[in-house]
Automatic annotation (TrEMBL):
The keyword Iron applies. Its cofactor is Fe cation. This is Fe2OG dioxygenase domain-containing protein. Residues 224-313 form the Fe2OG dioxygenase domain. InterPro entries: DIOX_N, IPNS-like_FE2OG_OXY, IPNS-like_sf, Oxoglu/Fe-dep_dioxygenase_dom. It comes from Eucalyptus globulus.
Length: 348
């Protein structure tokens, strides 16, 4: 079956004689109706358009969803508030996972399951609503605080991903209440309050894991911004030919992912997946690792970031040059999700 799938993918890819096809025109033909991948599915499409077909090497099935070989670290946050010994154990677990894996799952994080389920339902409600309502938000202007489109890097990537998305900046300067999509507005704001508490706690634990005071990462504004990104993966008629989200590493500092049986991490009921971002790898001077996965997050600021001075020494000199979140994000977006990592661009 694996060989057959690979042959089918190869057969559908353009040959060298076909590589001069007008890809830009096809991209525009997909983008201009402003209905995204869901629009294709709703129209009854039976074949994946050529712009979505990925090369065979993109399909690494070694660790598929639910694979028994993929044992993601799980950190239980329960019982540490009044127990220093318990807190130290949790810090050690966070350190180990951040250094060796670059991501982990947290349970007993304090976000009520009712809120997480309503958040998932709100996301589905947004993408299932009348296309004409969504078209009003569809844009490629990355400066807007509310953005709906399909593939932020549509015109830069080698192959488009089979997904639509909606991005909303929620901190430190959120859009007016009425500009947040009504289909998910209230639950997004409720979920924001809950996940912000989790984020602050995670930054404390990560600070301690680096041997710093608990407030260090928050004090240097790593927790200042918050953006929410909803990814939607419609049913695909030929799933063996395309990908929901290409392999990538998150820019910014930290991603907290609420999954709905989609990403390649075996789900634990009520768990949140925490990803170390590129900028946290940079300021930790490579102690924490940002790894390839299928998620995203966060928000720009004008502060300059480089390896944390308290972590440096003659035996551990800085490995990265300083950069702003804005400049880092600009490079990340220009590069696109091309399976290459962004941090090497900033190495000294």
């Amino acid at each position: 079956m694996v060989v057959d799938s690979a042959l089918e993918i190869e057969r559908r890819l353009p040959s060298k004689l076909e590589q001069d096809y007008d890809r830009v025109s096809e991209l525009k033909a997909f983008d201009e109706p402003k209905t995204g991948v869901k629009g294709l599915v709703d129209a009854g499409i039976r074949k994946v358009p050529r712009i979505f077909i990925h090369e065979p090497e993109s399909f690494d099935r070694k660790y598929g969803r639910g694979s028994s070989d993929l044992v993601v670290p799980v950190v239980d946050l329960e019982g540490m508030a009044d127990d220093p010994v318990r807190r130290k154990l949790i810090v050690d677990q966070v350190r180990s996972a951040s250094e060796e894996w670059g991501f982990f799952q947290v349970i007993n994080h304090g976000v009520p399951e009712e809120i997480t389920q309503k958040m998932i339902a709100g996301a589905i409600r947004f993408f299932d609503q009348d296309p004409e309502i969504k078209k009003a938000l569809y844009t490629r202007d990355a400066t807007k605080k509310v953005v709906h489109n399909s593939n932020f890097d549509l015109y830069q990537s080698k192959a488009a991903d089979w997904r639509d998305n909606m991005y909303c900046l929620l901190a430190p300067s959120p859009p007016p209440y009425e500009e947040i999509p009504a289909a998910c507005r209230d639950i997004m704001l409720d979920y924001q309050k809950q996940v912000t508490k989790v984020g602050f706690l995670l930054f404390e634990l990560l600070s301690e894991a680096l041997g710093l005071k608990p407030s260090h990462l928050k004090d240097i504004n790593c927790a200042e911004g918050l953006a929410m990104l909803l990814n939607y993966y419609p049913v695909c008629p030929e799933p063996e030919l395309t990908i929901g989200t290409s392999k990538h590493q998150d820019d910014y500092f930290l991603t907290v992912l609420l999954q709905d049986q989609i990403v390649d991490v075996p789900p634990i009921p009520g768990a949140l997946v925490v990803n170390i971002g590129d900028l946290l790898q940079l300021i930790s001077n490579d102690q924490f690792k940002s790894v390839e996965h299928r998620a995203l997050a966060s928000q720009p600021s004008s502060r300059v970031y480089g390896p944390i001075k308290e972590l440096l020494s003659e035996s551990n000199p800085p490995k990265f040059r300083e950069t702003t979140v804005r400049d880092y994000t600009y490079y990340f977006n220009m590069k696109g999700l091309d399976s290459t990592s962004a941090p090497p661009h900033f190495r000294i």
